[in-house]
Design brief:
Pathway: Amino-acid biosynthesis; L-arginine biosynthesis; L-arginine from L-ornithine and carbamoyl phosphate: step 1/3. Helices cover about 40% and strands about 15% of the residues. It is an alpha/beta fold and about 300 residues long. It folds into two domains: about 15-130 and about 290-305, Aspartate/ornithine carbamoyltransferase (Rossmann fold), CATH 3.40.50; about 130-285, Aspartate/ornithine carbamoyltransferase (Rossmann fold, 3-Layer(aba) Sandwich). The radius of gyration is 19 Å and the shape is globular.
């Protein structure tokens, strides 16, 4: 059997994505009903970037599945420095049941997966953040029911990993996904093309906007992310000036559906990308979204291990 990995959102077909989300809902109701890592078996969890939600959600999730997470912080391993990624993948495949990696260059994850005989999970790269999207889909489904046919709008830096993953993951769910950002901050053309091909099969659609009001109008979910990601701190002043018109305010939310929900993958910077009245208001589901990282990732790990 070919080992399945999860490196980008479209590594799951629409039917497979639904299976994972269905399992996530069951695991939320019965957290200890699946124990695929009983033993305990171990999972390697690498962090090239520091983290709060990713670290805690994977550590907690692996433990709840009966396993033991081996957390490797930045600078604690020889991965890709004194030892090749390929050699590391071959060694770890004989020691652990899963490899989870939060890193920079997506190509490293691809190389890891090419040489690993256990599932490799992208917990964040510069190009994609697919585990976050599974949690977001679970959160929206909890509030809205069937995902297919819903409209979601992501506003802000549409050229980043979140913009890319929303296009792929939400198109896979059959949703109408819109991303809005200023000129020069739109998603890669190849990612847009991939998402359009998926949407053509699922009945969804893909749209890229510059005008945030047009993008948000009639949306069932409005989403944003920080304007200044890790490693961009020196660009803060310029990025704040560039994205000022893309701040999620009550006035912008008023253009969405009256029962629209607001999501943010966190950490959030109030008064920058989102007004406090929105993220702390009744339309916000960010705390459910954060919790659902645990459930969605547990479902994903269980699903992948079942096919390992």
């Amino acid at each position: 059997m070919v080992t399945r990995h999860f490196l980008r959102d479209d590594d799951l077909s629409p039917a497979e994505q639904r299976e994972v989300l269905d399992l996530a809902a069951r695991l939320k109701r019965a957290p200890f009903s699946q124990r695929p890592l009983e033993g305990p078996q171990s999972a390697a969890v690498f962090f090239d970037k520091t983290s709060t939600r990713t670290r805690f959600s994977f550590a907690a999730g692996i433990s709840e599945l009966g396993g033991s997470p081996i957390i490797v912080n930045p600078g604690e391993a020889q991965l890709g420095v004194k030892e090749t990624i390929a050699d590391t993948a071959k060694v770890l495949s004989r020691m652990v049941s899963l490899i989870v990696w939060r890193t920079f260059d997506h190509a490293g994850l691809v190389e890891m997966a090419e040489h690993a005989t256990v599932p490799v999970i992208n917990s964040l790269s510069d190009d994609f953040h697919p585990c976050q999207i599974l949690a977001d889909l679970q959160t929206i489904r909890e509030r809205k029911g069937e995902l297919a046919g819903l409209t979601a709008t992501y506003v802000g830096d549409a050229a980043n990993n979140m913009g890319h993953s929303y296009l792929l993951g939400f198109a896979t769910a059959g949703m109408h996904i819109r991303v809005a950002g200023p000129a020069g901050f739109h998603p890669r053309a190849d990612i847009v093309a991939d998402a359009e091909r998926i949407a053509a099969r699922t009945g969804g659609s893909v749209s890229v906007f510059t005008d945030p009001v047009a993008a948000v109008s009639g949306a069932d979910a409005v989403i944003t992310d920080t304007w200044v990601s890790m490693g961009q701190e020196d660009e803060k002043a310029a990025r704040v000036a560039t994205f000022g018109a893309y701040r999620i305010t009550p006035e912008l939310m008023a253009h969405a559906e009256a029962d629209a929900v607001f999501l943010h993958c966190l950490p959030a910077y109030r008064e920058f990308e989102v007004a406090p009245e929105v993220i702390d208001g009744p339309q916000s589901v960010v705390w459910d979204e954060a919790e659902n990282r645990v459930h969605a990732q547990k479902a994903l790990m269980t699903w992948l291990l079942d096919r390992a």
